[in-house]
Amino acid sequence: MTTRVLRGLSLLAVVACAAATPASAQTDPIKFGKPDPKDFEAKNFVADSAAEAVVLCDYGRSRFEYADGDFRVVFDRITRIKILKKSGYDWATVKVPLYHQAGREEKLLNLRGYTYNLVNGQIAKEKFDDATTFREEANSNVTMRKFTLPNVREGAVIEYAYTVQSDFTFNFQDWQFQESIPVRWSEYRASIPAYFDYKILMQGYVPLTVAEHSEGSMQATVRQEGGYVGGGFNTQRVAGSASSVVLPLKTHRWAAQNVPAFRNEPFMTSSRDYVSRLDFELAGVKWEGQPYRPVSDSWEKINDDLLADENFGAQLKRGGFLKEQLTPLLAKTTDPAARIAAVHDLVRKSVKYNGRDWYYSSTSLRKAYDQHRGNAADVNLLLIAALREAGFQANPVLLSTRDHGFVNTDFMPLLSRFNYVVAHVALPEGKEMLLDATEELVPCGMLPTRCLNITGRLIMPKPADSRWISLVPQQRLTEYQQIQLTLDDKGGYTGKIHSEHGGYAGLAQRDKLREKGEKKFVEEMLQGREGWNVSKYQFAQRDALDKPLAFDYEVNVAGSDAQAGMLYLRPLQHFGNSKNPFVHENRQFPVDFGCLVDETLVMTLTLPAGYEVEELPKPAAVMLPDNGGRFMYQVQPGANGTLQLVSRLSLSRPVYSAESYADLREFYRLVVAKQAEQIVLKKKS
Q1: Could you read off the pLDDT of 558-589 as tens digits, one per residue?
Q2: Percentage helix, strand, coil, to 5, in the chain?
Q3: Is-contact 679 617, C-beta < 8 A?
Q4: What is the DSSP string of 664-683?
Q5: How far apart are CA 202 and CA 581, in angstroms?
Q6: How far apart are CA 383 and CA 396, in angstroms?
Q7: pLDDT band at 24 (very low <50, low <70, confident <90, very high)
Q8: How would DSSP label each residue in 154-179?
Q9: What is the pTM of this model?
Q10: Burial class (CB in 10 A: 0-12, 13-18, 19+), 136
Q11: Euclidean distance between CA atoms 66 and 167, whole angstroms
Q12: What are the phi and psi torsion angles at 523 (to 5°)?
């Protein structure tokens, strides 16, 4: 017979911490309730004059305690902030996230705070009333405790402190050194028993002032519980026993000084992807004399758990109620692409997206369909179920939206890295398609802009078939303008413009057109174009979502008296790139367009009678390194007193590394400069 132990080791109690360690024995950088008088002197904030506020000190400490038969994590925080401008008042409102699961939740303890103001040369303080805190549900597992410090004004110093007590050892507190305002000092300390194996990920571009790591110990008492071994006639009871062990303790201390404010830049995902921060993920546990036990999920386990979940995989099997609606749609065509589009159209028009991003459904798919409203999972899981009902091999793809942050495929498998789900359809000849039905104006086979975030995880019925899948779209952002202008002898012109906005440009312009209406759309287009008068305009293919949005309009612009028979023209100043989107000299993180970009401009310029060309811009061809993009510009005389201008810009990558930023910035500088070059005409003698 097989011998097996029915019960094993269990931790009974932690007795005491046996040794102090250098990283944890340092003096605290801040004492609550004791502001520095220098913090009220304006001269100490000259360097921060552009900031709305300054974090004077942010200090956090995480440690382990043992209670009620298990470890728990205790996190203490003290934060002090100087308010410099009215726009900085929002820093006096604080949110503390608290995790909860299966009836248990993290506890917010010892919350306290003060607002300090300088009144008649004396520091006056006003105490925060913790009874004014309130709860705000962030998602199904996180509640925000929110509070606001009182009597905040320009020049005030605010200070708050609290403790979070957590039974969820996997939810170890992360730490952020960098904010959208300057940080004078940020420090985090952690004391972790060696029993817990946390993977620590440091990201960002701010060098640490302190990074200390040392080892100590803590004493723990464990009990070998009694149980039965063997089987049949050989079954024997084994008595329990207790023993004391010394548990190694790892201590850490990180600090950063004079951290610059994080600066948002054009074409970026969430700032969370790039600010300097520490993330902790529990990989496993190892008790004395026991084998290492991984606690982080594998992709196979995540796959199985999702497919078994009532609000995910179980819903995908419940699309049968759509059979009556699907049958007449599928009878119209046998073409797979047309059938997929018909199913997509049915779901897109039946359930309105409520703006909430999540991968679990909030209700049954039938209820979401009947109520015509739901979150992203309600809509897209319904789409997958409907596609399956229509006979297609459709499966979910987990992803993280751009404002939620990118997913590091090299890091531990974590479901929390995701916040969205879309549909994947396998097509003949190894082709595949990604679909999303949350947006009215997004055509079949195209993802909303918020979903363009590098990579997603395809969840297949067999875990071994699941894989990472690229979210880089086949659609581009395309702009095409065909311009015909006739000049007069004062430099004014009349003309017709035909523009086509395709792919993601079409989506953006259709969104704007729906929001603003045609009249407001045209009015906003004319802003900054002095002297323009649009006499006629017309939109075409507005509802043909798979085609470019076409916009035709007629324009006339008055000129001014020509001087000495000369005309100086900048014909592309209102049609090309008027400014470089990359203002700053350097950038420490990637430029993420989300998709490829194509811009084409073709202009025919009819010269006024009696004028000829004196000076034309030289042709140009600019290439980004490693075939990263190209710009071409050319002006040449045409027939019957005309000039032909052609400008083409293409970017062949959705994402450019920080190392490529200088080249990309220079590329756009040359584009803007070239499109701004003037044409000189002179009156014939």
Answers
A1: 887 666 789 999 999 889 999 999 999 999 99
A2: 20, 40, 35
A3: yes
A4: HHHHHHHHHHHHT--EEEEE
A5: 30
A6: 10
A7: low
A8: TT-EEEEEEEEEES-GGG---EE---
A9: 0.86
A10: exposed
A11: 10
A12: -60, -40
